[in-house]
Amino acid sequence: GNDGGASVSLDGGASWSSEDNQPTAQIYRINVDDRFPFHMYGAQQDLSTIEVPSATPDWGIDVHDWRTDAQWESGYAVPVPGKPWIVYASGGPMGAIERTDTRTDLKTFLVVWPDENTGRGADELTYRFQWTFPIVASRYGSDTLYIGSQYVMKSVDGGRGWQDISPDLTRNDKQKQQPSGGPLHRDITSVEYYDTVFALAESPLQQGLLWAGTDDGRAWVTKDDGGHWDEVTPPDLPAWSTINVIDPSRFEPGTAFLAAHRYRLDDYAPYIYVTHDYGQHWQKIVSGLPTDTTSFSVRQDWKDPQLLFAGTLSGAWYSDDGGAHWHSLQQNLPHVAVTDLAVVPQQDSLAVATHGRAFWVLDQLQPLRELDPKLRKADAFLHTPGTAWITGGSQDPSALQFNMGENPVNGAEVYYQLKKPLGLGAKLNLAFTDLQGHPIASFSVVGRPAKKHDDDEEKDQDHDADQDAPVLGTDAGMDSFLWDLRYASIGKGDEGVPGPEVLPGRYRVTLTWGGRSQSREFDVKLDPNVHVTDADLKARSDLFLRVQKELVQLGKAAGHITALRTALKGSKAPDAPARLAQLEAIADKLVTPNFEGYLEVLAHPASLQERISSILFGLEGDYTAPPPAYQTLLDDLSAQADTQLQALHAFDDLHVHDPEALIRHHPAVRTGIAQQHQDRD
Predict the structure, then answer these.
(1) 91: Cβ–Cβ under 8 A, 6 or more apart, which residues?
(2) For a 10 Å CB count at each end of the chain, is N or C smaller?
């Protein structure tokens, strides 16, 4: 192992892998920006400061999607609100800050007080900056920054000049500021100091309202941007605690949440508090948390003031009653310390920093807001889906095998709960419509016997169902279903023709079971990075639907041709070979045969079915209006297809000898002939 992770040898040490084989980053803090998709920022212990997107247009998040925004291995990395390409990172000696413009990769080193501290005790320094000193990029001015030494300090010119806006907020115990190390050799790296401002936060509701906490257990608040400070330390918070996070409320300016720890003093109890009156009174809120799980972070939801999240030594927790009770949120999160959390409003997500397993993201917080205990008594409950995004990229589980991070799912993820497993023969349906009730897509499942664990399991499957279609879960408890935002496919399996994606707007999903139903509405939005008009999207959708209609018609013709071909090959009529040749001449132009190998495709001219199908590839992944050539080409190919379909109809009418004999032996011919006449009519 080394500072960057662990290397693995499979040949007794003759060769070693790189350290990029498992996610082991120890992230001190997490910050997120306001772009879509959001990026996560944090410093890795002993391995630089990184910026990682929460999603990419590809099938996973690769190392090439990361950025190294600063050389520091600790502290904060903070994007400027509204200007996420400007990133400030703390963690260097003497209050050093690295400013990076990610558009140009231009880096500027800003030193608050350029006095060399190496080898000197904190008691003799002008400013005491900790290894992880906090930095805040103000939402009220793009060049306004706040940092913490023993003072709260402010810059209004992007970090070039600084002003102390508070007195020394710490206990300033000189005995705890002496040089570290022993009598033979000092060990002072100029960043491991005590009695410092360790937590700093700006209210999202009121300019000039700042909260500060120290690593020696004092909490402060100012309502006038540092003009006057009040100490508001919770009375029962033990002295010398480290106040790690203060989270100002998004709903009330006087409300804030505080998380502190004391593990370095052999006290592993959680210390989480809430105030509703600017710190005049505090309430300890730790019920439900293990008594030996150190608390590192607490954050309030952006939508529900009662929904809170906590990061602790034993993982992630949530409370849906303002902190009165806590519940585990671990799910598939690795069992490591969660050092920090960030709520992401624009994507309704929770981003998590861990000490040993890098960044994690929980998508869709709405189900947590609806976890009412009464729901557990209901036979079924449909949760309100979050906003679904029309965007590129996809989630591919194999990304993990290639040392890549997972993308979020692409589509509308619908959560629902069943009190009991779906009964034998009972039907569960999930239907998507517009708000006028026009059907878009529908998915159903019928309750089956308990799964068998033998070779007969396949016999229980519905072989008429499309095996590629998503399946509704039928077990008791919460389940989820991912709708790909497409209109229903027509046909099944390889013969199915997908529908286009729906247009941005508001839609309805309905869960039906046992003669009862529940409906919820949700939004579908276009990736804000895609700049197209509604007319562009409508033109793309209309052309997609027209291509789908053409392909469905050709698919039916292909099935009819197959039935006729089989019948003619089995016919003993003298003219059967000649009629079969006429049929094959039509088929060669109209539909794509079942080639035995991929290379065989190259030896045959593309059929009209194949050429029309290729138009779909040009429509996928591009949201602009289709170029005129697409429409012109489809008009031409459709006309050619009509000519061949008419020839096929004429073949049915004039050249089938003894059709009743064929029908008796091959019923598919009757269906095909009837369908072809119906389509023509």
Answers:
(1) 43, 49, 70, 72, 73, 74, 75, 76, 131, 132, 133, 191
(2) C
